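Quick one, tokens below:
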């Protein structure tokens, strides 16, 4: 059931509660996706707040997602991290999924760094590779900006031309190369899930220009752009879905296992990027 309290007021209520727990001001927001929540352990934490305690926050129901906001320093930089995110397939609306991004903006962040696990629809992107998003294709059925627009949050029609920070992608690729990590830039296609895709769908997405297929990230990116935040997003390719003869049956446990094995790569890149930004 969608909350009837105006969105701006919901954000203020969440902020008021968070400020009773910590006065820490983050500069960077990080969303830790499937199998990547271990990065939260690297943060020199000053506060950890379970989602369930924060007014209007959803709670994460997916294995591999911890479900808390972590405040502290990572590579010396002040961050707030979402250890666990929300998905449309869990039954939440796009507005609910993206509520934490709006709260992070009001907490003071300037840049949102997102991570996810995705299937590869590009024959050159292997399982375990890191992909920096340069663009996306949105095929999710709900949009977090749908409904009356509150100008205090952002414009009615946000432009999406320079959505992803290509300068940071270039730096990320440079870091990956130095560390001997296989990495690419690519286009992410977002679906609602939760089922994995059929071979005919993977073929369609490949023809449409997608390098990766996933079930998250784009709603958060739309809200970040609506609020004028910089965006950087990175995926771990967890399974190969193109060419079609290379598709294998895949379980969520398989996806988590590959994401977790690739996590040290993602961790190195994020920490070096934060040091670079600092």
């Amino acid at each position: 059931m969608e909350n009837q309290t105006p969105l701006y007021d919901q954000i203020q209520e969440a902020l008021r509660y968070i400020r009773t727990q910590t006065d820490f001001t983050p500069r960077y927001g990080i969303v830790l996706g499937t199998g990547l929540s271990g990065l939260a352990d690297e943060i020199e934490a000053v506060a950890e707040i379970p989602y369930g305690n924060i007014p209007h926050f959803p709670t994460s129901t997916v294995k591999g997602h911890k479900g808390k906001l972590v405040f502290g320093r990572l590579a010396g930089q002040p961050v707030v991290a979402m250890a666990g995110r929300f998905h449309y397939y869990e039954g939440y609306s796009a507005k609910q999924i993206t509520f934490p991004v709006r709260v992070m903006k009001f907490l003071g962040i300037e840049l949102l760094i997102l991570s996810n696990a995705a299937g590869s629809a590009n024959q050159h992107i292997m399982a375990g590779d890191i992909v920096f998003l340069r663009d996306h294709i949105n095929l999710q059925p709900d949009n977090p900006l749908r409904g009356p627009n509150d100008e205090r949050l952002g414009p009615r029609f946000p432009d999406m031309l320079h959505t992803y920070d290509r300068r940071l992608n270039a730096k990320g690729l440079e870091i990956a190369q130095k560390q001997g990590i296989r990495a690419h830039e690519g286009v992410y296609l977002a679906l609602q899930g939760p089922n994995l895709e059929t071979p005919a769908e993977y073929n369609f997405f490949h023809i449409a220009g997608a390098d990766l297929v996933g079930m998250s990230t784009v709603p958060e990116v739309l809200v970040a752009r609506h609020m004028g935040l910089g965006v950087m997003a990175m995926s771990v390719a967890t399974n190969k879905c193109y060419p079609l003869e290379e598709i294998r049956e895949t379980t969520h446990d398989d996806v988590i296992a590959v994401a977790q094995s690739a996590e040290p790569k993602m961790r190195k890149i994020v920490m070096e990027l934060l040091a670079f930004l600092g």
